[in-house]
Design a protein that fits this description.
With about 325 residues, this protein is α+β, with helices and mostly antiparallel strands. It has two domains: about 10-40 and about 125-310, Multidrug efflux transporter AcrB transmembrane domain (Multidrug efflux transporter AcrB transmembrane fold); about 45-125, Alpha-Beta Plaits, CATH 3.30.70. The chain has ten helices and eight strands. The protein has a four-stranded antiparallel β-sheet with strand order 4-5-3-6. Strands 1-8 form a two-stranded antiparallel ribbon. Helix 3 (about 60-70) packs across helix 4, helix 6 packs antiparallel against helix 7 and helix 7 packs antiparallel against helix 8.
């Protein structure tokens, strides 16, 4: 029987670096939201979406000119690629389905495209308002449920830190959408709600280990809350990384090979999975440590034993 030493990754020691990075990302996201704003799909704002397929060598300038001649001057145009064929996605604020169809037909005729080369989808503003309201209610209920579960299962400080990490993930994800001007659709909302589940899972796993190890404090090595938390994160870090990678594989496949609907969902999921894995150890646990370390019991132990968090732990084989 021999002993050797394994060194923990000093994650909690560098908590200010992680929190500082998160603060910068949140600030950039807020700047993006203020400077560029969000682009909402017609499901939220109401309007018309025209999908042009198999448009061949038609340029985006020619498409814009044709739409302008068809009285769609304010339409936004994006190039698309469906099954290897070039096309365009056109969004406008026209809410009358008959008018939208006439404009699409006129543009197609000007570009010498057949009537089968486009599809018109029109949604009224009332339906969009209902979708917006339902999405807001879903987010609110999810947040309250998360706070209630963790507060009952563990404690309210863990609940609030978990919610802070969730908001961190959502703000940065929305900020990326603002900077890239990618439209937010119901598929994106579904992805954001799914992201909350993944992020919460990683955070709860860490909090569970921290909570269990805190009950065994005073083992001679991990005495302070920071030391206990750092050890607990190292215990589950490989599991978090493996879960994230295995989840990212199908998401990246959808992002690379899926259609427009799947790509909307996959883009938000890819961002959220990475942020969720990071925020569990880079945001939630550091915030919890800063808060818990101020409690009289842990503050006293921090004063007595609070040395470097990268503790060398003996292992026996």
């Amino acid at each position: 029987m021999r002993s050797h030493f394994s060194r923990e990754l000093p994650i909690i020691t560098h908590r200010r670096i992680f929190l500082g990075l998160s603060a910068v990302l949140i600030a950039l996201s807020l700047v993006g939201l203020l400077a560029r704003g969000l682009v909402f799909g017609i499901e939220f704002s109401g309007g018309t979406e025209i999908d042009f397929y198999n448009t061949g060598n038609i340029s985006i300038e020619h498409m814009r000119e044709a739409l302008s001649n068809a009285q769609e001057d304010s339409a936004t145009v994006q190039t698309t690629l469906t099954d290897g064929s070039a096309g365009f996605l056109v969004r406008s604020d026209t809410t009358n389905p008959n008018t939208a169809t006439e404009h699409a037909q006129q543009a197609a005729q000007l570009l010498s495209l057949p009537d089968t080369s486009y599809q018109v989808t029109t949604i009224g503003p009332d339906w969009g308002a209902n979708v917006t309201h339902s999405s807001a209610v879903a987010f609110g209920i999810a947040i309250l449920a998360i706070i209630a579960y963790i507060a009952v299962r563990y404690e309210y400080k863990m609940a609030l830190c978990a919610v802070a990490s969730l908001l961190h993930d959502l703000i940065i994800t929305v900020g990326i959408y603002a900077w890239t001007q990618t439209a937010i659709t119901p598929n994106v909302v579904a992805a954001l709600l799914t992201i909350m589940g993944y992020s919460l899972y990683d955070t709860v796993v860490e909090f569970h280990r921290i909570n269990e190890n805190a009950k065994l404090a005073g083992d001679g090595t991990h005495r302070t809350y920071n030391q206990i938390a750092n050890f607990s994160i190292n215990e589950v870090l490989v599991r978090t990384i493996n879960t994230t990678i295995t989840s990212l594989v199908p998401v990246c496949a959808m992002l690379a090979f899926g259609g427009a609907t799947l790509k909307d969902f996959a883009f938000a999921m890819a961002i959220g999975l990475v942020l969720g894995a990071y925020s569990s150890f880079g945001v939630a646990s550091p915030l919890l440590c800063m808060w818990k370390s101020q409690e009289p019991k842990w503050k006293k132990l921090e004063t007595k034993y609070g040395v470097a968090q990268a503790v060398t732990t003996p292992e026996v084989k």
